Amino acid sequence: MKMFLITLWLISCTFILTEAKDLLRIPLIRKSLSRNEKQSLISLLITSHDQLDYPSFLESKSKIHMKNYANTQYVGTVGIGSPEQYMDVIFDTGSSNFFINSKLCKDSTCQSRKWYDHDKSESYHHIGFTLEVEFGTGVISGLINEDIVTIAGVPLLKQRFAEVTSEKGEVFLDGKFSGILGLAFDSMAAFGTVPIFDSLIDSNALTWNVFSFYYSLNEDEESEIIVGDIDQDKFEGDIVWVPLIKDLLNYWLIEIDDILLGGESLGFCPYGCRGAVDTGTTLLSAPSDSLNTLYKKINQDCEEYLSFPDISFIIQGRVFTISPKDYVLTNTEENFDDPGKHSEYVTECSLGFMPIDVPPPNGPLWVLGDIFLSNFYSIFDRDSLSIGLAKAKHKNQ
């Protein structure tokens, strides 16, 4: 069985393509993000589906208030054009389009990042459809064009994507990534564009139409995305297969049966809650009223954050628990800790949640980002339209 492996490094590294035991590897980078950059990223990921001519289940653009924490985001390199131009992108299950920073964009936010220059590609083809997307306090404009896109060593010919032509608003300050590669469904793609993973399926390069994520908790261990298979060495126990919500088959949405704090139900989901499993978001998101209740119930001294109660999500009748070490964000004076990492002496803390209010029938919505996913091996199966979750196997645990 052919298996394509995308590896996430915890330190910066140059692009290398290797093959070993039938695995094609692409090193990825884990980057720390500033406060403005994190706000930019979250605003973009939450509202990127709200294209001017396309519907979105995220109809309520909740303003996001972020603590001044340095968060992290995983990015990986893809090749565009011939010869290839290598770009760092975010692999995002919460969107479908492929946006790439372009030489066509003259805004300072574009010029400060690596860009794609279609004039240097022999395989570029102009399409010219215009696309405009609102990001709460900003707007991004682009042109749909096509070129060869190479991912995990597989060249996708005549792949359409959006070349960014303009970025307006504070949400685009400090960005270090050059694009966002959407892994959601084609029903949300602009102008009928075929998303990257759909193109991989159409190429017949995969024997199993899945991709899976593993997030390491240790700097000496690699994280990884595997395209076309799973890594059974990265999890333990059974895989819990959770069917997608079929009436909103645009996103990787699942049903959450209940949410517990310290083993007690919070009563947030009397009729079930909807959960978006989103690899493009570091934090967790919750309805603002639920989040207010959660803050009141976890109103304790930050120095005792390790004694905070666990938070559990009941999914498909199984319990998926995250500890305060995962969901509490800490800092000591001006030293901001990455999620899951904590200073010895903590002076301030916050829950790793953001408010997001989506009205019925599409809500209430919870977004399960990397804080949740770092504890579980996640498998996104396009054949069975389901998500598999298993306990991640981390070193030194």
From TrEMBL:
InterPro entries: Aspartic_peptidase_A1 (IPR001461), Aspartic_peptidase_AS (IPR001969), PEPTIDASE_A1 (IPR033121), Peptidase_aspartic_dom_sf (IPR021109)
Biological process, per Gene Ontology: protein processing
GO MF terms held by the record: aspartic-type endopeptidase activity
Official protein name in the record: Peptidase A1 domain-containing protein
Keywords recorded for this protein, A-Z: Aspartyl protease, Disulfide bond, Hydrolase, Protease, Signal
Family statement: Belongs to the peptidase A1 family.
SUPFAM superfamilies in the record: Acid proteases
Signal sequence interval, chain numbering: 1-20
Source species, domain of life: Eukaryota
Cysteine disulfide links: C105-C110
Active-site residues annotated for this sequence: D92, D278
Record domain Peptidase A1: where: 74-390
